[in-house]
Amino acid sequence: MDLANSLTSMPSWVLFIILLIIGVLATEFGFWAGHRKVKNGINEPTAPIGTAVSAILALLAFMLGFTFSITSSRFADRKGLVISQANAIGAGYLRAGLLPEKQKTTVRKLFSEYTDLLLKLPESNNVEALLDRRDAIHLLLWEQALSLEEQDIPPAMKSLFITSVNEIISLAEERKTVALVFRIPDALWEALLFLNVISMFAYGYQKGISGSRRTFEIPILTITYAVVIVLIADMDSTSFRRFKVSQEPLRSLQKMIRKGPR
């Protein structure tokens, strides 16, 4: 079972409700277990239990912070790659002006289509088809770069264009990997969810032992942790539900290409 994919593809509100229900049930079960011990005359000192519960909750908070750090770092990488990609395509488009007329026209048309395609990717329901076309454009650009060997132009011009094509292809693969491949592993999700359940159970158990059932605290604590887990799942999602990277650098590039020479 692909736990990461199941959690991140689930609607946010559904995941939140599931986590809330599980958290409340774990807390209630813990309270029932602790309260039953007290009713059976088994008295445990509350101080050691309170210390253990605090340690468990702190560990859960640490795991949440660690996991959130991973996803936020990946989100920052995605933003940086959009800027780098827009700059590389823009440089390639401008350097195409140094090419012979035949290659220049073909290459600039490819760059125009390529930019439009990249802007469609984040909102598309048919990502695979767009990625296939992206790869086809990479090959077409490389064919144009290879055709320069037959042209009598300065080596420096050839080198500049070939470098641009290489950089564009490399950045495209890097962005695809960061956006669609790098995910929080299932083992980390399993540990996070297990710790969440154990923490809620331990908190409920402590309340049951002490005999102080505070109904207001139980849902508040559960809601707090559920919200953070949902945010992590949203940020880790390949569909980018809430955390969407601005495509403004590519939109600016698109405007430049449409206004520029063909």
Automatic annotation (TrEMBL):
The chain crosses the membrane at residues 12-32, 52-71, 187-206, 218-235. The keyword Mitochondrion does not apply. The keyword Chloroplast does not apply. It holds the Pfam family Bestrophin-like. InterPro entries: DUF4239. Keywords: Membrane, Transmembrane, Transmembrane helix. This is DUF4239 domain-containing protein. It comes from Adhaeribacter soli.
